Amino acid sequence: MDLPRLLSDFPGVGGRIKQRDEDFFVQEIPLYEPSGQGEHVYCEVQKVGITTFEAIDRMADALHVSGRDIGYAGMKDAHAISRQVFSILGTTPEAVMAAKWPDLSVQWAARHGNKLRLGHLAGNRFAIRIRDVAATDVVKLKPAVERLAARGMPNYFGSQRFGRRGDNADLGAALVSGDDKAVLGLLLGKPMPRVDDSSAQGARAAFDAGDFEGAMKRWPRRSGMERRVLARFIKTKNPTAAVRCVDERLRRLWVSALQSEIFNAVVASRINTLDRLIDGDLAMKTDNGAVFAVPQAAVEQARCDAGDISPTGPLIGYRMTEASAAAREIEDAALATRGLSGSDFRVAGRLKVKGARRALRVIPRDLELSGGPDEHGPHITVAFSLPAGSFATVLMRELMGIDEQDALDA
């Protein structure tokens, strides 16, 4: 991410993360506990090296239920040890506890009255190891950690929000603009040698050259979505009909990436004053997420200093409450880079996205540091809690001084 760090005067300790699944541990902090009664079974599952959707598929097969009847509160990284809560309809706590799955283990199970929904989550607890560093460098991190605990960290969306090819926001912008031809060009063309394998590169190059049949022959069978969209385009010659073949969840993910890009730009514009309100801000209460207008920043700054409230930025949509005065000018400038307005997110025949506000900063809690060796060499472990929706890799970027991809590839 080409975005400024809050701790720009701290060079960071460098190193690498996510070298092994056990180097990245995350445990959900539930929004509420199961009641013990109801038709859904809540269970905490530890998964290693697999995605949330893979875990759902394995549980559904073993328990003979539909994957649609399994709820979850948030997505979790595959390259990690993750403890995640699911709700399952059509089974019993005893059956869940007795089930055996590869790379999955059940920690507890109890009944509850409703399905677990996306966002039903208070936060996450992380423990992340930094490799290829001197364990004694842990002392260098203490002042940096204290600054983040006092001022908060940028609430950037992490690079994973923008997809493996980094073009999810471009796809979202084309989708919102109604430029379905551009959506197809991004989805099926524009090969990226450093990202795409040889088969995908050949398929994308053929599409760009107008050889659609040749592109279909080159797409591997595992690229089911690309093949399905291309087949519809070949049959209809209609970009809109082809784009409609894309699963709605994926299209919403693209629009979400566009929202995230605009939000990140606002954070970047205010990086040096994330803990300072400005006139016209919409502030968010830390304890309950309520948002209110701040006509005069000086009146509310003491609450911001105490961490009780924070300025917010836009997750643009047609019903999003807009800032005013100086805060509005910054947000309008970020939105103008895409040539869009909130009304563009509500157009007949396309996705309708209401929008929301998101805090520009988030204060990590219960920060702990430790250093030492294990069988794989020296490391530093950083443990902390973040509210739901905030990215651990953004905090690690502040401490390491390098972006996530550099930390993976170094």
Topology:
Layout lengths: L23 E7 L9 E9 L3 H12 L6 E3 L8 E9 L3 H6 L5 E9 L8 E11 L6 H14 L1 E2 L13 H10 L2 H9 L9 H11 L3 H7 L5 H13 L2 H5 L4 H22 L11 E5 L5 E4 L2 H9 L3 E7 L9 H12 L19 E4 L1 E2 L2 E10 L2 E11 L4 H9 L3 H6 L1
Please tell me about this protein's structure:
It is a single chain. By secondary structure, this protein is an alpha+beta fold. Among the domains are: 32-118, TruD, catalytic domain (Pseudouridine synthase), CATH 3.30.2350.20; 168-248, Hypothetical Protein Yqey, Chain: A, domain1 (Orthogonal Bundle), CATH 1.10.1510.30; 255-362, Pseudouridine synthase (2-Layer Sandwich). 35% of the residues lie in helices and 23% in strands. The chain is built from 14 helices and 14 strands. The chain has helices spanning 52-63, 93-98, 138-151, 168-177, 180-188, 198-208, 212-218, 224-236, 239-243, 248-269, 297-305, 325-336, 392-400, 404-409; strands at residues 24-30, 40-48, 70-72, 81-89, 104-112, 121-131, 153-154, 281-285, 291-294, 309-315, 356-359, 361-362, 365-374, 377-387. Strands 1, 2, 3, 4, 5, 6, 13 and 14 form an eight-stranded mixed sheet that branches. Strands 9-8-10-11 form a four-stranded antiparallel sheet. Strands 7-12 form a two-stranded antiparallel sheet. α6 packs antiparallel against α7. It is globular. It starts with 23 loop residues before the first strand and ends with a helix. 35% of the residues are buried. The model has no long low-confidence stretch (mean pLDDT 93).
